[in-house]
Amino acid sequence: MDLTTYQHQAARTLNPALNDQEHLLNFALGLIGELGELADEYKKHKHQGHNLRSDKVIDEAGDMTWYIAGAMNYFAIDLSRINILPATTADDIHTILLAHNHVNALSILLTSPEPDRHLIQVNILQLLSLLAALLASHGTTLNATFDANIDKLKRRYPDAFSVTASIERTE
Q1: What's the DSSP call for residue 152?
Q2: 2 CB contacts (<8 Å, ≥6 apart)?
Q3: CB burial class (10 A; 0-12, 13-18, 19+) of residue 79?
Q4: From CA 22, how far away is CA 29, in angstroms rounded?
Q5: pTM
């Protein structure tokens, strides 16, 4: 699935009860939370003896793309004509640390009184490039991750987002 299709399908699961500012805060906090879960997976692997679970890494990266797509939709950012290439980084840990910088920048930009669309777009592009690198190191692509994330969202919210389905979800 390409990014534009993903953006449109992901929008189906936005919470319709939120206003614009609440959506932007949700995107910011969501990115922070998902990156934290991704970092935690590597922390457990590197420092606590856990096996690194590629499926978990891919799932968390996919969740990050949902929040990125939401911000792209909100600011009408179209990256359909840009080939997002994986960033060149030393290793997955370095990739996550770099992603942290862009998530922080996006979180501040998304929740500022006058968001700078250009800076948001630049940080989104950099973050997608870093996610592409991380996913490549786990044998997959952004496009495959978009597919998997939409499949998960369709199971979780068959018709559209609902508060009840969110609260009662098992996965």
Answers
A1: H
A2: 80, 143, 146
A3: middle
A4: 10
A5: 0.94
Distances in Å between the alpha carbon of 157 and those of 20, 41, 47, 61, 152? 21, 26, 36, 19, 9
DSSP of 27-85, one letter per residue?
Answer: HHHHHHHHHHHHHHHHHHHHHH-PPP-HHHHHHHHHHHHHHHHHHHHHTT---TTS--P
pLDDT digits (tens, 9 = 90+) for 86-141: 888 879 999 999 999 999 999 999 999 999 999 999 999 999 999 999 999 999 99
Joined together, the tokens standing for residue 4 give: 């534009």
Q: How many helices (H) and strands (E) does the chain have?
A: 7, 0
